[in-house]
Amino acid sequence: MKALVIGPGRVGCGFVGQLLRASGMEVVFAARNPVLADHLNRISQYRVRLVNGVETREVTVDCVRAVPTSKPELVAEEIVGVDLIATAVGASNLPDIAPLIAAGLRQRSTPLNVIAFENWANAGSYLRGLVASHLPVNFPIAQHGFSGALISRAVTERLGDPSADEPLTFVGDPPAALVVDGIGLRLPLPVIEGMIVTNNFSAWMQRKLYTFSAGHVTAAYIGYLKGYHYIHTAIRDPEIRAAVMSAMTEGQRALAARYGPELAGDESDLLEIMSRFENAALNDPIERVGRDPQRKLGAEDRLVGAARLAEAFGVPAQKLALAAAAALCFDNPADPSAAELQREIKKDGLRSALTRISGLDARSEVGRSIADARSRMACGWQPGNLLLSLDRLLWAWTA
């Protein structure tokens, strides 16, 4: 069995490649960076360091190699002989790799599954459409499966220099569960360690987004305002910890109302998530977790999506709204999405920006709650100011 992983980054190597190799597959990476491709071919292995805050386990992922995406004919040759394609490039980069996949499928005569590890509910169908646009109209694309996957592991950093001769190390936490959308797959199904195949992928996606992801960015956005630099330090702040737990509880209650308590989970699931946020060994930067606030404020995403679901079932969503308001204050100049958002708010106003980004009517309960919370924050917030008290919205004037 052989798999092609497009994207040897943190997720591609630190999660996907490690699981596929543990499942007995030969792993070939398609790499945009020629230096990284050369490194993997030279060293033929890398390490995954799994840390939970108490103990560390290091796994060597061996017998790997790579082909550069700058040579599409080599990628196509690999696709002809693989049993699975996995993508880990980020949803915004899927259009760039669609021609590579299409070129390989043109040369195949047997079905192939393509799984997009992009943490996005529509990743499989979206990628299928992109690939189809590079194929003849009568091409039998229906014989190939296109599916999405949920990533349970947080891989926070890559250590090492690809130009050197020492194996790279990817640092992440231990979770290895893999939820895959079964509707888009074709038989025979790939056998991957830890894989859960579901026909209700959107519900599982919402479970992750509206609990873990909502809590993660709540810690990041409020932590940013209070001057913290890492998730594990922010979550030790009592105010932030309480806000994170409340935001996740609101999301979980909304999920229970929509899908039932079995899928939504209970308080023990939220406490387990909190323990992951406390993991200092991950050294997870707030700016990484909070980056691209426009996407994370999307209508179906972790904060607004959870708040909208809560509103639909009569569940209060005050802390989700507060976290969304904090996201609207995320003013990291190194983040193009954040910088654009701040310019838009200054030019067109908060409500206009919120409507465009989140699709929210400012008259809706959620839209009003977010806008009101952001307006209260704006009384003392400006870039550089530190939030001293979340409850009283007390600021230190440092700018």
Q: Can you characterise this structure?
A:
The structure is a single chain. The chain is an alpha/beta fold. The protein has two domains: 2-199, Rossmann fold (3-Layer(aba) Sandwich); 202-396, N-(1-d-carboxylethyl)-l-norvaline Dehydrogenase, domain 2 (Orthogonal Bundle). It contains 17 helices and 14 strands. It has helices at residues 10-22, 34-43, 72-81, 94-106, 123-132, 201-225, 231-234, 238-259, 261-264, 267-277, 286-290, 293-296, 304-312, 318-327, 336-348, 350-358, 365-378, and strands at 2-6, 26-31, 45-51, 56-62, 64-68, 84-87, 113-116, 145-151, 155-159, 169-172, 178-181, 195-198, 386-389, 394-396. The chain has an eight-stranded mixed sheet, with helices on both faces. A four-stranded mixed sheet has the order 4-3-10-9. Helix 3 packs across helix 4, helix 6 packs antiparallel against helix 8 (238-259) and helix 8 crosses helix 13. The protein starts with a strand and ends with a strand.
How do the strands and helices of this protein lay out in sequence?
Layout: E1 2-6, H1 10-22, E2 26-31, H2 34-43, E3 45-51, E4 56-62, E5 64-68, H3 72-81, E6 84-87, H4 94-106, E7 113-116, H5 123-132, E8 145-151, E9 155-159, E10 169-172, E11 178-181, E12 195-198, H6 201-225, H7 231-234, H8 238-259, H9 261-264, H10 267-277, H11 286-290, H12 293-296, H13 304-312, H14 318-327, H15 336-348, H16 350-358, H17 365-378, E13 386-389, E14 394-396
Helix pairs in contact: 3-4, 4-5, 6-8, 6-10, 6-14, 8-10, 8-13, 8-14, 14-17, 15-16
